[in-house]
Amino acid sequence: MVFTLKKYITLLTLMFLAFVVKAQEDEVTFEMAVSKEKLGLNERLRVDFTMNRDGDNFNPPDFEGFRVVMGPAQSIRNSWVNGVRSYSKSYSYTLMPTEKGTFTIGQASIIVDGKAYKSLTKKIEVSAAVEDPNAPPSAESIADDNLHLVAEVSKSNPYLNEAVSVVYKLYVSNSIRVTNFRPIDSPKYNNFWSQDMPVQQYSAQQGTYEGKPYQYVILKRIVLYPQKTGKLDIEPLSLDVSVEVPTSRRDFFGRPLYTATNKTVSAGGRTLNVKELPLEGKPENFSGAVGKFDFSVTTSKKSLNASESLQASVKVSGSGNLKLFQLPEPNLPSALEVYEPEFDESIKTTIAGMQGSVKNNYTIVPSYKGKYPIPSISFNYFDPKTEKYISLTSEQILINVIEGPSNGSASNNTVSATNKQEVASTGNQFQFIKLKTELKPKGNSYFFGSTAYLLWLLAPLIFIPLAILFGKKREAIRGDVQGNKIKKANKLSRKYLSAAKKTLGNKEAFYVALEKALHNYLKAKLKIETSEFSKDKIAQLLAEKQVSQATSDGFIALLKNCEMARYSPFSNVQMQQDYNAASEVISTMDKQL
């Protein structure tokens, strides 16, 4: 009986132990382990999240105060010992602290069999950088020493409106490899007229940086024309670069193994000291041209008949700020009818600046016979290389109108007023007055029954209905409030467009008038109040009216220019171009609407 009781107790004990072991096997554990709880600013921290059961939807913490250098690296261990299965799965991260202080690594989460589990938090203390002469250099330090972004500026002390080129180069040592890059912060060239020259293809070239061999890639090229004097800042260009740096480990063939890291590089800000153009020798009619130019005035013909037309071209060619000054205007005789000039430009922008030509083409139509001189015109520019003002003068051109009606002042404009000519007698200067008259009888005419009598009789019957119709039409026009608003807006549009033309050269007044003209035009054509809509809404309405995309974009661009003119410098040439563009866009929209 005693033996049976002992056997029974032993059996219960074994069953209890088996139950405990089974319960331990079924229990899910999810833990976080760190390589150290105190580290220096230049050291790395390894964080492992380990679980004894496979799970889904692993969600790491945000690692505030640290930057993830590597990870997550996943590893699984599965083994059987004496018939007992052992399983573990871990997610590993390598972190680099971003600043000193005490930081808390938050909870990670995992879902196992539909149930969520979270790890505990850990506090990490980051101190100042520690010295470890035996430690291998980090990937960040290797990237720092072998990766450089440089902004090469052609001139740090330019004159006002003198071309300055900026070339951004990324220098890369042969010991590391760049896999990708993206701009973080692009500079805004305030107080400069800028022209970007896109790089079509990135190609590595051999060069040197601080006396050492490097490869470099040209990332960005831009030409700047300073519009203000004094110290002007060029904002830095910043890039996020993905690089691969070698480690101390090697593969089976003895080649170094690489590790990936990200590095932020910046070209740094640059400051230009822009000089004012010298006052000594500055011509009175100087229009702001800076560079090296040639000047010419030509005509398509020098002999023609009255009412025929000829073309006169005022042309400036060379290299410099071709888009930022006004061409001189010819002073033509009043007897020649001259139309508004057509502006034409052929400009190519290179790393050295703008090159090409600009010209105004005038259409001239003489009305009378005679000889008309086109006086010489002068064009002045400043040459920054010689630091002197250069004046170019065209030759006088004589237009000979061969046939046409005579004009006293025009036909004798080449003859001196003191010249006298003898009058030759032809014998027919004097004729006798006839003293005898030849009278013819006049037939009798009566008003009654005549055609005039019938017209006067029928006139009231015709004009009274017309007057009634005219009166009703005027009443309908007065009652059409919406139509009157449209007519008024259309009239105001033409008025302000004309006012804008008269204020060319005065930036504030010009763009205020141009903006009012554009807004009133929209009121007239789209029957809207533009103050209630954004530019996107206006573009949408124009698209609904089947206005072409190019015309719509041109109209929106003019509205943007009117707004930008309040804060940015606009040249007289830009104002003339905007006025021409407004006239063309309104004319095109009229046809499409």
Automatic annotation (TrEMBL):
Transmembrane segments: 446-470
Pfam families, per the entry: BatD
InterPro entries, alphabetized: BatD
Keywords of this entry: Membrane, Signal, Transmembrane, Transmembrane helix
Phosphoprotein is among the record's keywords: no
Residues of the signal peptide: 1-23
PANTHER family linked: BATD, PROTEIN BATD-RELATED
Record-given protein name: Oxygen tolerance
Protein species of origin: Cellulophaga baltica
Lineage: Bacteria, Pseudomonadati, Bacteroidota, Flavobacteriia, Flavobacteriales
